[in-house]
Fold:
Amino acid sequence: MSSTTQRLADLFAQRHGPAKTSSPYDVGLVLAALALATLGLVIVTSASMPMADRLYDNPFYFSIRHGIYLLVALLASGVVLQVPMSFWRVINPWLLLAAIAMLLAVLVVGRTINGSTRWIVIGPLTLQPAEPAKLFFFTYLAGYLVRRYDEVTENIKGFLKPLVVFFVLACLLLLQPDFGTVVVMFTTTMGLLFLAGARLWQFFAIVFVGMLAIVFLIVFEEYRMRRVTSFLDPWADPFGSGYQLTQSLMAYGRGSWFGQGLGNSYQKLEFLTQAHSDFIMAIVAEELGFVGVLVILALILFVVVRALNIGKQALAKQRPFEGYLAYSIGIWLSFQTAVNVGASAGILPTKGLTLPLISYGGTSLIVLAVAVAMLIRIDFELRVDGVQALGRKDKKKAKPAVIKQDEEKQTKDNIKAMLEEVEMGAENE
Structure:
């Protein structure tokens, strides 16, 4: 049976060329995202057990919830994979309105925790509107760059319009307050405008103004100023404003190269607060060491690089909306990772941002999974376009060959008819 199959395969290859075995999806991107999500579930389980046991008398309380969120994220990703990108291209203005509506709703009916009103409770579910607002805004921004590309690259008016929309969203976020999300959205917006071809003087002028605004917001808000001062010298007040960072640095120091072993962290025994969310990388460093941190960062870097490559391919194939959206997702993931890891390692002030696909947080996990699914869908459509283009090319090549055969047959028939006429004429004579 195998020899017969091989002969058939050889005959097929001789007539049609070697069979194509490439997957319609980016397998590497899928595996990297699944690996990050799986590692996240393991680390969240390890980091949250002491707190969950004390608060809920169930060491797996946060782990079970994170697992449920992960299942919801996978289901949402499966749905998004079935949705063509043309749908997002048409609906993106309505997504922006939905983002504004959610940010307004959280100020009215949101739950306040530790002085911040960022969550809407819907039955057993807790929604953080800032997370989908980021994705919806980036989707709108990609659509805007397609509709107003000439304005963005040629005059200041087109450049400023998306910044006005960002200003509205930033004001709503600062009322919660959620300063970290504002910084992520501003950085991604400026990066995307730069990649879209905005003039350099406009770009640097807005960056300068944005940096001044960020400094202003830090200086004139006491709790943000305390974060900056504690970041500069956490050991000056190790049991006060610098407590969180000093405990995080201890976790990094204990981890060394290969860590203390999974589950053997001391800092998660409620010395380090938020160990399973904002400071989860410190627990990774303590339990899995430098090698574990490097593996997670390498996986995230792979996803970011693939996002940027997908964006580049989409622009090259005249699909600008998909290209800009892929770029924005790549910038978003990279900057949020840098801020989270930088805050836990004492390189940057704390911002309260999750580590993508790793940290505990249902809304963040679901939204980031949907963003990765969008990347996979964009790549899928690019591959399908390539196959269809190849098919059209083959048809174009085949059509002249058929015409040529018809012409040759007609020529032979004409010559044959002429010879018959000559022969009949000779017989009559």
Summary: The CA atoms of residues 36 and 357 lie 6 Å apart. The two ends are 69 Å apart (CA to CA). Strands lie at 111-113, 116-122, 125-127.
